[in-house]
Design brief:
Strand content: 15-25%
Number of helices: 11
Structural class: alpha+beta
Shape: elongated
Radius of gyration: 37 Å
Largest sheet: 7 strands, mixed
Number of domains: 2
CATH topology of the largest domain: BirA Bifunctional Protein, domain 2
Helix content: 25-40%
Oligomer: single chain
């Protein structure tokens, strides 16, 4: 065994390690559990009893010698690698630009909206984006044959006869239903979130967008309260000089209903392609909550009344920042987004 130990010692001393591959080969040859040194330790039990202490001492010295050579070679290779990196660092090269993240323009606008309505006493409610057909349509007084139920407008997930269909919500009004089912009047909430509609993508519309809806239910709530709320919001959001107009409209869940326009941000009301030469841009729909909706949520329409409104956050962002294509808000183009960095 002494001869074999001496042979291994000479092999370790003469082993050339000039790269990481040779370093790994050295470790596998001598230092692992099934390596050459471990094999000799395994044979120690078969040696004569009087020779075992001597052989054990020689094997420990051999193992220590291999460990020292491995550690020394590893440190040398590490130092060489560091030196190579330092030699390749060209201090005359220009620095790499680090892009600083910022809040997306849609989130900026949504944050301002929340702040305005919070100051008016509204709380914030949220709900699931995958919604039941009954919450999205039925309880909001949509007739069974309403066009919004057709596949061209709604992304249905499951739709079986006799079952409550699952769909991607087309508005945040289901959140209002959930609030009215869980809470008793007075209720004053806003419901922000993403909504989905199966629409053709263009400069003015997208298949996914952000919406903020509001709901106020109490005794003696009138249309005058609704108009005062909308006027206050518009003046704070678009400036004190903004002009508004209310147009009669129809929504299944409100009666009477109206759509609200503001003067076009590009032409100032003189007419352009964005406002279709009308001088006005629609910002929201609103109205008094339909008595059937109150009944569906177990709220007495003889005792309580209320108003609701809904607006597109993305459309409001276009108005505020004078962006003429809604698709720019979803393309993540750094050239556009960096304009909003603070």
């Amino acid at each position: 065994m002494e001869n074999r130990v001496e042979e291994l010692q000479r092999e370790i001393d003469n082993y050339a390690i000039t790269c990481t591959d040779e370093l790994e080969a050295f470790r596998l040859r001598f230092m692992v559990r099934k390596g050459s040194i471990a094999e000799l330790f395994g044979e120690l039990k078969d040696a004569p009893a009087e020779s075992r202490p001597r052989y054990g001492q020689l094997l420990n010295q051999l193992k220590q010698s291999a460990d020292r050579k491995y550690d020394s070679a590893r440190k040398q290779l590490s130092a060489l690698s560091t030196g190579e990196k330092q030699r390749h660092n060209d201090l005359t090269l220009p620095g790499r630009k680090l892009y600083q993240g910022s809040e997306h323009p849609v989130q900026k606008v949504l944050g301002d909206m929340k702040q305005i309505f919070r100051a008016m006493g509204f709380t914030i409610a949220t709900g699931p984006e995958i919604e039941l057909d009954s919450y999205n349509f039925d309880m909001l007084n949509f007739p069974k044959n309403h066009p919004a139920r057709d596949m061209q407008d709604t992304f249905f997930i499951t739709r079986k006869e006799g079952e409550d269909a699952l769909l991607l919500r087309t508005h945040t009004s289901p959140v209002q239903i959930r609030v009215m089912l869980d809470d008793k009047p007075p209720i004053r909430v806003i419901c922000p979130g993403k909504v989905y509609r199966n629409e053709a993508i263009s400069a003015r519309s997208y298949c996914v967008f952000h919406q903020l809806e509001g709901l106020y239910i109490d005794t003696n709530v009138s249309f005058a309260d609704l108009k005062a709320t909308i006027f206050s919001f518009a003046k704070q959001m678009f400036g004190s000089s903004v002009e508004l107009r209310f147009r009669p409209s129809f929504f299944p869940f409100t009666e009477p209903s109206a759509e609200v326009d503001v003067t076009c941000y590009l032409c100032g009301g003189s007419g352009c392609k964005v406002c279709k030469q009308s001088g006005w841009l629609e910002i929201l729909g609103c109205g008094m909550v339909h008595p059937n909706v109150l009944k569906n949520c177990s709220i007495d329409p003889e005792k309580y009344s209320g108003f609701a409104f809904g607006m597109g956050v993305d459309r409001t962002a276009l108005l505020r920042y004078k962006i003429d294509d809604i698709r720019l808000l979803f393309e993540n183009d750094v050239r556009m987004l960096e304009q909003f960095m603070q």
